[in-house]
Design goal:
Blueprint lengths: L2 E2 L12 H10 L34 H4 L3 E2 L25 E4 L4 E4 L3 E4 L1 E4 L13 E5 L5 E5 L16 E5 L3 E5 L11 E10 L5 E9 L15 E2 L1
Parallel strand pairs: 4-12
Antiparallel strand pairs: 1-2, 3-6, 5-10, 7-9, 7-11, 8-10, 11-12, 11-13
Length: about 230
């Protein structure tokens, strides 16, 4: 990663890992860009100063002078904050929620996560027409992971251990049956991130795989990946 000279307008475009994979399969004919998205991950809006001593026209000076970050080929580390288009007059941002705040599974147990989106097109709660993206941070902890695909977008692997599937209105998780990863730990922790493909809204919920404990629901907040 590096910084670009922001004294002039710069467009720095590179292929992600998935893009390079498609390009290698059949040249330009296998890689056709049909959609694009914009994001502002590198912008710190807390720097906007309405009380700037030089006047309101300088309120965004600090933001405008921030260095630009080079394009990053790992799609798991970019476009975290996507720009979205909402209907005129929208007063509430879409929020993704799930039918459980935390998933706790014993060995071999399964659970189906069913997300919904609040405030989408002025509806209190509904499923997004294009479905959702589901990312498990550590795929090693599951024997199966997937949902009903809502499009021809394939399963993708974003990192060494994580996996993302494009699905419809639910995704099923089944815990591993082996204890080989536990060592002396009684449980293993990871996270599941659900992202709406129409709104870009997302939610991350903790997933706990227990050696002996029967699956249960908990509201205790635990994030990230760790061993205990």
């Amino acid at each position: 990663m590096g910084y670009l000279d922001n004294t002039s307008i710069t467009v720095d475009a590179i292929l992600t890992k998935r893009g390079r994979e498609l390009l290698s399969q059949g040249g330009l004919g296998a890689f056709n860009i049909t959609q694009f998205a914009l994001g502002d991950d590198e912008i710190d809006y807390t720097l906007f100063n309405e009380d700037h001593p030089n006047g309101s026209q300088f309120s965004g000076e600090a933001i405008e002078n921030m260095p630009l970050i080079e394009a990053i080929p790992d799609e798991g580390n970019i476009m975290i904050h996507r720009l979205i288009t909402l209907n005129s007059g929208t007063s509430k941002l879409p929020i993704v929620t799930t039918n459980i705040p935390k998933i706790t599974l014993n060995l071999g147990a399964s659970f189906e996560v069913q997300p919904s989106t609040l405030n989408f097109n002025d509806v209190s709660a509904q499923s997004e027409p294009s479905g959702y993206l589901y990312t498990i941070a550590d795929r090693r902890l599951l024997s199966s992971f997937g949902g009903t695909l809502s499009s021809n977008i394939p399963t993708t692997s974003r990192a060494a251990f994580s996996q993302t599937v494009a699905g419809g209105n639910s995704v099923s998780l089944t815990a591993l049956n082996s204890t080989s990863l536990f060592g002396n730990n009684r449980k293993l922790l990871t996270t599941l991130t659900v992202e709406g493909r129409d709104t870009g809204a997302r939610v991350t919920i903790p997933v706990e795989i227990s050696k002996t404990q029967v699956g249960r629901t908990s509201t205790q907040a635990e994030t990230g990946i760790s061993l205990r």
